[in-house]
Amino acid sequence: MEQIQNIENYLTNVGIKPSYQRMKIYEYLIENMNHPTVEMIYKDLSPHIPTLSKTTVYNTLKLFVDKEITQIITIEDTEARFDADTSTHGHFKCIKCGKIFDFSFDKTNLNIKQIENFDIQQTHLYIKGICENCKNIDKKNN
Amino acid sequence: MEQIQNIENYLTNVGIKPSYQRMKIYEYLIENMNHPTVEMIYKDLSPHIPTLSKTTVYNTLKLFVDKEITQIITIEDTEARFDADTSTHGHFKCIKCGKIFDFSFDKTNLNIKQIENFDIQQTHLYIKGICENCKNIDKKNN
DNA sequence: TTTATAATTGTAACAATTACAGAAATGGAA
DNA sequence: TTCCATTTCTGTAATTGTTACAATTATAAA
Ligand SMILES: [Mn+2]
Ligand SMILES: [Mn+2]
Ligand SMILES: [Zn+2]
Ligand SMILES: [Zn+2]
Q: How many Å lie between the centroid of ligand 4 and the Cα of residue B139?
């Protein structure tokens, strides 16, 4: 209710006309910070917005990315994931359970010499491996 | 000539039967460290191997990745890129000229707390922006 | 040479994404 | 209100990167 009100103002402030679909999709993104795919967003919102088209999900996300209120996570090469948290932070993907975890890192002391005169606009750190929970499950089974 | 000989031995050592196609594709990867796409590899090798199939390029790259002599670079969400340098190193993509630059970074001082008990297998650092050359071109035009 | 196995090829299938044209909604001006 | 222009949304078709699969070809041992 009030959340929607906030979203409406927020979208307006960044120059996006707050249509019902756009508000619902943005609301979904901030309530589900688990880096959803287009498919997940569409599947979950369809019951509540029966007329929703997958094209609208694609168009809306592209608009959000253009206006820089959403970032694309390409940690897997199969399909894109979306994140309403546009701050620079890292992503860990567990190859066992598939879950994607956020983590923060210090990009100031990366000490990168080769590109020090380059103009940096986006920094993405992707780490793959096995999360603590899956590690413990593995231990038990051995 | 001799290069091919080395590649033949190298592939054999990592457990890959060195067919002509596989040797040529691996040779292409180490001679073109510009992180080619499947399309680039296929286009460039086709004239020299007229019977080459794009499926063979896909199959061969998957085999190289499985045997860990090649890594997949997913810096763009459109198509996969391949890198015969499997060491942990960063990639910078210039959004003007599209070129992808390698750089080294010290992953030890990233200071990541949230995933310190996780089992890390791969680390990918992708940075996007404008390279020095394109920056200078921009300056001249303003 | 025969025969089994592995590698390659070409086509079809698939899945994610984009293009596009028509329908619906929106927001003034008359 | 009605009319009209513009924007947004929708559904389908097209496109693109990738994978599945069956048939062909190459390889190598018996
Ligand atoms: Mn995130
Ligand atoms: Mn590289
Ligand atoms: Zn896990
Ligand atoms: Zn450049």
A: 13
Q: What is the CATH number of the domain that holds A104?
A: 3.30.1490
Domain co-membership, B12 together with B79: yes
- Residues A11 and A68 both lie in one domain: yes
> pLDDT per residue over A102-138, tens digit each?
999 988 877 788 999 999 999 999 999 999 999 999 8
Same domain, A46 and A16: yes
Degrees to nearest 5, angle at CA B23 with B19 and B25 = 120
A110 interfaces chain B, CB cutoff of 8 Å: yes
CA-based nearest residue to B124, from B79, B90, B85, B83: B90
> Can you point out the beta strands (E) in chain B?
71-73, 81-83, 90-94, 100-103, 119-130
- Closest residue of A to B116, CA-based? A132
d(CA B55, CA A115): 36
Over the stretch B91-113, which tens digit does the pLDDT of each residue have? 999 999 999 999 999 888 787 89
B129 and chain A in contact, CB less than 8 A: yes
Residue A61: its H or E element: helix A54-66
Domain that holds residue A51: 2-83
Q: Do B98 and B76 fall into the same domain?
A: no
Of A66, A83, A100, the domain-final residue: A83
